């Protein structure tokens, strides 16, 4: 198949590209000017220089394609740079849909996020849901995947958590009992490749999680075991951290926002079985996922 991919230079995007190439697909990757160096296999893909906010770039890239994989998303907004959830989630998705219609691409695969909802607790979750609704109402043949926390080689989350483990003392926000179902980036990438079949998960919205429903404390303990380290977990009171973050979140280099704290404490779990059944995939256990991510 000829596949057009947005968000191709990101963590998930590069894994998706690798999987598509390994399966013999031809790939066109939408890449913002100056970001070409982020592609892991630039010589094996057709690079379309452009932006998801520009319809002409999308139309150019989609012409003659059999499917579109739309991965663009942000976890943090920078309004002063015109990087907002509304622009990169909702408006970008609307542009992708219109371009897919104009070029008559027969299949759209869209990456959302577990927990997306109309009344979500943060703009991130609400705009992710708004984008989903645009896809569902588009009239296109689609599938929407909503991953939990994604772990894999090259991911920012696993790097951050691994660095914490290496320092022995691991700070944990709150009681550490909020739950996740971390999923391997390999599973996510394979899901998108399998989903290219227009009859697979047709017009479905599927939650994507790993087989292990675990607390954040348990994730850090498992990572320490995989890395062969001993750790001491220090649980930080939520309120003082939230107040400090409220004051500092716009300062250059500050690593957190209050919205990120909110979503962390909410956790991210699901019924993952329909995804694996629909895509014909085998779940990867947490410790194997972590081992593949750090070694």
Short description:
This protein has 295 residues and is α/β, with parallel strands linked by helices.
What does this structure look like?
The protein is of the alpha/beta class. The protein has a domain at 2-150 and 183-208 and 269-283: 3-Layer(aba) Sandwich (Rossmann fold), CATH 3.40.50.720. It contains eleven helices and 13 strands. The strands form four sheets. It has a seven-stranded parallel sheet, sandwiched between helices. Strands 7-10 form a two-stranded parallel ribbon. A two-stranded parallel ribbon has the order 8-13. β5 (108-111), α4 (123-136) and β6 (142-147) form a beta-alpha-beta unit. It is globular and about 55 Å long. It starts with a strand and ends with a helix. The model has no long low-confidence stretch (mean pLDDT 96).
CATH superfamily of the domain at 2-150 and 183-208 and 269-283: NAD(P)-binding Rossmann-like Domain
CATH class of the domain at 2-150 and 183-208 and 269-283: Alpha Beta
Number of strands: 13
- CATH architecture call of the domain at 2-150 and 183-208 and 269-283: 3-Layer(aba) Sandwich
* Beta strand %: 15-25%
Q: Find the structural class using helix and strand composition.
A: alpha/beta
Mean pLDDT: 96
N-to-C series of helices and strands: EHEEHEHEHEEHEEEHEEHEHHHH
- The first-to-last residue Cα distance is 32 Å
Q: What is the CATH fold-level name of the domain at 2-150 and 183-208 and 269-283?
A: Rossmann fold
Overall outline: globular
Largest sheet: 7 strands, parallel
Spans of at least 5 consecutive residues with low confidence? none
Number of helices: 11
> Which strand order do you get reading across the main beta sheet?
3-2-1-4-5-6-11
Radius of gyration: 19 Å
């Amino acid at each position: 198949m000829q596949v057009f991919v947005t968000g191709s230079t990101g963590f998930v995007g590069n894994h998706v590209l690798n999987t598509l190439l390994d399966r013999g697909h031809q790939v066109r990757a939408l890449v913002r000017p100056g970001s070409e160096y982020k592609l892991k296999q630039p010589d094996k893909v057709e690079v379309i220089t452009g932006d998801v906010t520009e319809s002409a770039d999308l139309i150019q890239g989609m012409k003659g394609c059999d499917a579109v994989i739309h991965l663009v998303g942000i976890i943090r907004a920078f309004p002063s740079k015109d990087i907002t959830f509304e622009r990169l989630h909702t408006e970008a998705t609307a542009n992708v849909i219109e371009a897919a219609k104009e070029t008559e691409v027969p299949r759209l695969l869209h990456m959302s996020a577990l927990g997306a909802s109309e009344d979500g607790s943060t703009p991130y979750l609400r705009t992710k849901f708004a984008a989903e609704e645009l896809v569902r109402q588009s009239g296109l043949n689609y599938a929407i995947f909503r991953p939990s926390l994604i772990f894999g080689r090259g991911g920012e989350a696993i790097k951050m958590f691994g660095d914490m483990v290496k320092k022995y003392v691991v700070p944990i926000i709150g009681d550490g009992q909020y739950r996740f179902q971390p999923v391997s980036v390999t599973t996510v990438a394979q899901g998108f490749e399998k989903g290219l079949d227009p009859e697979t998960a047709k017009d479905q919205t599927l939650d994507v999680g790993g087989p292990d429903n675990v607390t954040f404390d348990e994730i850090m303990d498992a990572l320490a075991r995989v890395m062969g380290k001993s750790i001491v977990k220090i649980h930080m009171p939520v309120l003082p951290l939230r107040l400090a973050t409220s004051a500092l979140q716009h300062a250059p280099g500050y690593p957190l926002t209050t919205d990120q704290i909110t979503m962390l404490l909410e956790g991210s779990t699901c019924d993952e079985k329909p995804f694996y059944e629909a895509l014909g995939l085998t779940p990867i256990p947490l410790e194997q996922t972590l081992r593949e991510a750090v070694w």
